[in-house]
Amino acid sequence: MADLDAQTPAGYEPPALSVLRWDEPPEGPVLVLLDQTRLPAEEVELVCTDVPALVGAIQTLAVRGAPLLGIAGGYGVALAAARGYDVAEAAGLLERARPTAVNLAYGVRRVAAAYAEAAGKGAGEQAAAAAALTEARALHREDAQASGRMAEYGEALLEELMPGRGYQLLTHCNTGALVSGGEGTAFAVALRVHRQGRLRRLWVDETRPLLQGARLTAYEAARNGLAYSLLTDNAAGSLFAAGEVDAVLIGADRIAADGSVANKVGSYPLAVLAKYHHVPFIVVAPTTTVDLETPDGASIIVEQRSGREVTEITPSRSVPGSDRGGRALAPLGAPAYNPAFDVTPPELITAIVTEEGAISPVTGVGLAELCARSSQVTIG
Hints:
The longest helix is centred in the middle third of the chain and has 37 residues, at about 125-160. By secondary structure, this protein is an alpha/beta fold. The strands form four sheets. Strands 6-5-4-7-10-15-16 form a seven-stranded mixed β-sheet, sandwiched between helices. The chain has a four-stranded mixed β-sheet with strand order 11-8-9-14, with helices on one face. It contains eleven helices and 16 strands. The protein has helices at about 50-60, 65-80, 85-95, 100-120, 125-160, 185-195, 210-225, 235-240, 265-275, 310, 365-375, and strands at about 20-25, 30-35, 45-50, 165-170, 200-205, 230, 245-250, 255, 260-265, 280-285, 290, 310-315, 325-330, 340-345, 350-355, 355-360.
């Protein structure tokens, strides 16, 4: 178990989290995941030997976060190829595992295309599987590099908006190393500010219904020695009113062509609060999260999750509503509205920060130009 002492000496950088890795034991290749449903109580690895196991891990949120889902999906295709399963069928299963995060489909399709290209050129099954694995590893590496650039651009934007000062930043859900091949998206910006000695406080929304802020962001903040405080989601308004929030930093699971952003439910109310209180509301996400084929926010499919995640809690596991039997929090049979995400329109967003730079104001034209630049860049 990692040391969760928040009083870590300045300058200390803990060992990188091993969130996802490819392994090749004698019995055959596997994908090894850090089971995020067990955090922060336990650091337990989950071994996926086939695609159905990986799909289960994705749907139960053992592995989660838009960029990491793309990486996991890519490795899932490589796993199917390496073990001799039907790659097209595996790709379909993976793409449908979670509908909102566009990165998942991107990673799956990219690695499946590499496999198909190799096979189409006459490569044998082993060579085509090797091509798929090479592509998955390239995607993993590119995401890590993109994470570093997003942190740089995000920190530069904060300095431009609020020069020469320290920041109290509010974040929602989890956007650190647990969702990325690198140090994350929005959390990576906060981490960079912290390392420069300019983070006064990171406000961490607990993030209902799965408590990913309380369980995961607080875990990463403590692990890296950030000054942070956990708050209930409905307490954010009082912080804004008291002038205790300098900027909001969130990630994204899908960004539509018009700049609308789907993120963990609770993000949209924060944007409204930020607008009213004249506080910058900043989205940090890689260009792979932008989906130019989704025209606007109304076209984004919002995943609806089981009401049991709201009406029950399971003491034996970190995540409410697991299948291991829970303790009721609400009357038996109480209906629950439990969307995984909400959508924030572009007019409420100060800027979107990507590995290719930031755009502000957020417009469809600016987003398309940013993605066009990205498609011309080869990362290797």
